[in-house]
Structures are given as structure tokens and as C-alpha cells.
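Mods, move this if it's the wrong board.
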Amino acid sequence: MSTIQKVNFEPVSDVLPVQRRDFALADKTLSDPLNSVALVDGEWMTLDSSSKLVRGAAIGTLATAGAGGRASVRTFPLFAERGRYDVRAMAEKKMPILYRGDYEFDTRVFDAAAAAGSGAAITTMLQALKVGTILIGSRNYCGLVGHGGSADTDPVVGYVTRLPASNGGKLRFISGWRS
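Not the wrong board. C-alpha cells:
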């Protein structure tokens, strides 16, 4: 079972060559830590037609089998903790995402049991991952769920490198996707 804490998304090594890029939020209120649906580090984002950040999946609908709440376009992980002052101080409310490069991270923003659309529960090493709306505690987030393989048309965003049971409750994954 995953939990949301102050730091939810951590690189496995400090020397990983990640390329961050800041984009403005489409909804500036998501940077306010007092907002009941504020963004947290490790949530997955995509770009709208104005090149502004929006959640990768609609968090109003859980990504259960046959339902919505799944990301069907390329998504990127948010790399800023909830309520960061440097983000909130800017009028445009820009947030950093991991835009390019290969990386390996530990995340708390996942649901190992969710089977989003034609997806599968997260159970094996090197299993493909995709993005969907998940429930942690009593709130929805845009996080990682298991990919369903060749029958699943949602984009692959990474692969499991350590399961939560052997990683202190965090899911470790490497980046990667197919179109």
C-alpha cells in the first residue's frame, strides 16, 4: 500500500543524467499546497495545446478496468515537492518535469493492485508501467499502474526495477516508453 509523504519521488543515484524542463501550469491553483487536489512530486503530467502542464489522467475517475482515468498520450513525472516556494513565488507557476533522458526513480505515487483498462497489477520485475488515476488514502492522484502488454494501447512510461515489498513500500522504475 502506497502513502503520500513530503518526498514521494527520489532518484536512485545523484549522478543520473536527467533533463528537467519547467512548464507553466494550466491550472495555477494546483501549486497551492492547501488545495485539496494539489500536485505532489511523482505525479504524472502532460502538455495541453497551449504547452501548459495538466495531469496526465483525469483524477475524477479512477483507472479501473473499463473506466476512464488513463493517460493515452505521452506523460512526464513531476519533479517538485508539494508547496515549493520557488514554484509558488513565480506569477506563471512553472513546475519542473523530467522531460528527456533515461532515469531510475523510487516513487510512492503508484497503485500495485490497479488494473487500469486492459492493464495488470504490478507483480514482476521489468514489468511495463503506464499512467492512470489511482486512489491513495482518500484522494485520487495521477500515478503508475501496471501495463497490460500487447493488448494495451496506453503508452509505456517505464519498467519495474524493484518491487515495493523489497524497497520500503516504494516502487522503483526505469524510464522508457513505446509509441
